[in-house]
Amino acid sequence: CFLTGAAKLVVVIAIFLLTFYVISQVFEIKMDANLGHIFGKWWLSTKPPRYKCGISKACPEKHFAFKMSSGAANVVGPKICVEDNVLMSGVKNNVGRGINMALVNGKTGELLDTKFFDMWGGDVAPLIEFLKTIQDGTIVLMATYDDGATKLNEEARKLIAELGSTSITNLGFRDNWVFCGGKGIKTKSPFEQHIKNNKDTNKYEGWPEVVEMEGCIPQKQE
């Protein structure tokens, strides 16, 4: 009788444990699913959204996102990004001393060309000729590196001013400057940053601090 009772007890305990295990497994699965759902929502709500080119807010429809920076002294080259595509940078190895320029199709946002012109040891003539070939409706982005002004003359400055720049007339030796304008623009561009080279305020020994700029370029309409 004792063995029979003990066997019954073992069976009851085994059934209880098995039932508890099954219930706990189901519960844990549901709990894990709920925790995963909750954690996922928390992660999505706390992780800041990323916008094209890393700009601070999304651009409206029919606008191109852009972000750009001038060079840092004569060490780190400038960077130009449009619609999440890095067009020019030191990493891409397509930047150089002087004025760095990227041309973008104003309707599609497609890259058309990139060039840099040495305004310290080079000649201004190739810059002038290149500026004259830019077609209407082209977005033009420019950034200085090291020195972008020494070889500039009145003709070159005038051609850049016609793209919407206001600071180009005052751009001097080792100033830092970034600009986004367009061929055929009817008004002055709102996208321009300029810091003068001043030994009393320079961040680096012979150069001012880097200038950065971001924004949303209106898409050219027919």
From TrEMBL:
It is found in: Secreted. GO terms for molecular function: carbohydrate binding. The chain crosses the membrane at residues 6-23. Keywords: Disulfide bond, Lectin, Membrane, Secreted, Signal, Transmembrane, Transmembrane helix. It holds the Pfam family ILEI. Residues 97-184 form the ILEI/PANDER domain. Belongs to the FAM3 family. This is FAM3C protein. It comes from Poecile atricapillus. The lineage of its organism: Eukaryota, Metazoa, Chordata, Craniata, Vertebrata.
